[in-house]
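Schema walk-through. Below, the input block comes first and the output block second. Nothing else is stored per chain. Lengths vary across the set, and this one has 522 residues.
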Amino acid sequence: MALSLPSPVLLALVFIAAEVILTTGSSQCVARNFGHDSVVCECNSTYCDSVGSVTLPPRGQYSSYLSSRAGSRLEASQGQIQVKSSGADLRLTIVPYQKYQKIRGFGGAMTDAAAINILSLSAGTQEQLLRQYFSSEGIGYSVVRVPMASCDFSTRLYTYADTPGDYDLENFTLAAEDINMKIPLLQRAQALSHQPLSLLASAWSAPTWMKTNGALTGKGSLKGLPGGKEHKTWAQYYIRFLDEYAKYNLTFWALTTGNEPTAGEMTNYSFQALGFTPEEQRDWVALDLGPALHASSYPHTHVLILDDNRLLLPHWAKVVLNDVHAGRYIHGVAVHWYMDHLVPAEISLGVTHHLYPEYYLFGTEACSGWSPFDRGVKLGSWDRAEQYAHDIIEDLNHYVVGWTDWNLALDQTGGPNWVKNFVDSPVIVDTKRDVFYKQPTFYSMAHFSKFLWEGSQRVGVSASGQTELEFSAFIRPDGSVVLIVLNRSASVHKFEVWDPAVGYIPSAAPAHSLLTLAWNTH
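--- output ---
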């Protein structure tokens, strides 16, 4: 039966209901459909969906978090762990004594473009966006990659030492982009985080006067040879970068030996690049970067080699890590996700881990929309969320200890980018409306970053039969268990989880869904 209320009263009730949603912090997604296969969640200065801080129920119960193409976004529910099997066709058995790598963390990159986009919003909306990524109510990012000087996601070309012949780096200075944008945002992100952020530095190019081609872009490498003055100055450039950021109380967990060294080996590469062969990288680390770091105030900063696509493995690792002089300064191998489909994870990541188990594998860059066949921003693309989740699960199941997305935020064109290399991002900013959209890929990241705390250890999980489901299991530092399940198929898959410590968990993965299950064992 319809209520025949006067329209002013009806309007008042609508406003009261809206106010209740805002003030009670309701976690529902404000869904918007832009014509792709799913939706985005719209956020503004006063409202954003959030699953909040997660506390697991007592032993004997489990929590479940579901995101799906149909529109679920970290939809939370709880259930009872059973003493008896449900008789499901598929059983996933947790094998806690099979122990693998420990998680370092998940995150994204504070590029110039990301900083420009975040700062284009009002103060309240900026805060909301940073909370969504870095607070415990948000998705708990713990890793931030920071480009050293400009990259393609900048609005201009620059380095920190553009004075020709400045081998002593007397004129080394941070850019306005660092001082006015990236550093303040990193400080704010750190203030929101309940843990110290793991900052990761990567350089795209050395100054032009140090390079064989005299340009920041295109095919070019450092002049001279490792051990020579250009190579030594380039190592000191890293130290000076760490020095300058330390003045703002920002210290770096790790640095990479340079973004995509193979790019600078190619002809006419369109944006900033610095070419290294694996042999040159090995010798530069052994003779220049390693000793410079060791003698600096940052001897404990980690050095990650490669910072390029995994199809270069295990060859690149063999060349660099077989050298005892380089190997002693190195902690890990950094990989990008581009062209992962060209080489199986087992013969790249798996073989590298088995050859060099003392060096960890870490994902340092990934984004959707980079391929010429599937370019730019797609608001609401669930297919891209599945690409993320598939790659993360595959990486985790092959010894990778963390996974870093690319730009934290982009505009609706996928920029700014000075060379128009537009891509997608988990957060897209609409400055005109002072809102931002959380893409399905944001929730893909959340299913891992929010639940896999630093120190969580991957453990065995075995399936009772063939299945289309993809999955990975972890025991967290507090002893609780997390199982992440991806269903890329068009049908629902019923299954049960058997954890010998607690019993049976009946579950189902809806079509095109990502599911995180978590429970206490004591």
